[in-house]
Design goal:
- By secondary structure, this protein is α/β, with parallel strands linked by helices.
- 43% of the residues lie in helices and 17% in strands.
Length: 281
């Protein structure tokens, strides 16, 4: 049975206007075992000033490693979303993110197909994605890094669409970063979909969706940046955990919520659910 651990995507401090280091410290204080940093290319004013949590890949990767070691947490992966459909952006971005991840000990790099160009056909888009993923996989394989493909955009919003992307390149580096909230908002059954990909699962975005959010957008969007606190919304976390325990490797649930308060409620709820499941076993 796969071990399920609890981590958090650092998006939870985005609206707090704090730095990466502050976010890592806060995640540790709340009791999270893992963090999922976000990386970017180049330089970004708010990040440089300490008001935004994203880390430039021009920085020393050990900036992340030192912060995590200082506060006793580990990296579940890197949030390195880049449009696979646009290889002029995604190829070098993903390759750099993979090398960055390998140096800091993050086992997964998460991404998705991204918004498509307005002038390409679906068939052309899949050729472009295959090129990007092939180049990325050739860098990821020798480093033991997994590429977590997420259900998040126009093609990956359905189980069949995500499957097609995953099959573009035959590589042990290609896996699935399943997002519970995105799959639900896209109009799919998140439990059936999670069961469908559990054999390829390498990471999970633990995103809950409030009833109000569901009523407003379900079936109309392909995803959302963050959800509500786990336990405050529509997702049955006990059911998700039981499915993910069937995975071929240990899985980190990386909570995606929008505030520090939601992060605190999320870990409290997930720990309670895991404790109850353990007692019932």
């Amino acid at each position: 049975m796969a071990k399920i651990s609890i981590g958090i995507n650092l998006e939870f401090v985005r609206h707090a206007d704090k730095s990466f280091e502050w976010g890592v410290a806060k995640a540790a204080e709340l009791g999270y075992e893992y963090v999922e940093p976000m990386v970017h290319w180049g330089r970004e004013l708010l990040s440089e000033a300490g008001y935004f949590h994203s880390v430039s890949m021009l920085d020393d990767p050990y900036r992340i490693k030192r912060a995590c070691e200082k506060h006793g947490v580990k990296c579940s992966g890197l949030s390195a979303h880049t449009p696979l459909i646009k290889p002029e952006i995604a190829v070098e971005y993903l390759k750099q993110a993979i090398r960055f991840a390998a140096e800091i000990g993050a086992p997964v790099v998460n991404t998705d197909e991204g918004p498509k160009p307005v002038w390409t056909t679906a068939e052309e888009d899949h050729v472009l994605m295959r090129y990007t993923l092939m180049e990325a996989a050739r860098v990821a394989e020798p480093r033991g890094i997994k590429i977590g493909l997420e259900c998040h955009q126009q093609y990956s919003k359905t189980p069949a669409g995500l499957d097609r992307i995953c099959k573009l390149v035959k590589s042990p580096a290609i896996g699935v970063n399943f997002d519970t909230g995105n799959s639900y908002l896209g109009g799919e059954n998140p439990y059936r979909w999670c069961q469908r990909v559990v054999g390829r699962l390498v990471h999970l975005h633990a995103k809950d969706i409030s009833v109000e959010h569901s009523d407003a957008e379900r079936g109309k969007v392909t995803g959302t940046p963050v959800g509500c606190a786990c336990g405050d919304g529509v997702i049955d976390w006990a059911r998700v955990i039981r499915i993910c325990q069937q995975a071929k490797q240990d899985i980190v649930f990386s909570v995606e919520c929008g505030t520090v308060d939601q992060a605190e409620r999320s870990i409290t709820h997930l720990k309670q659910v895991m404790k109850k499941l353990k007692e019932e076993a």
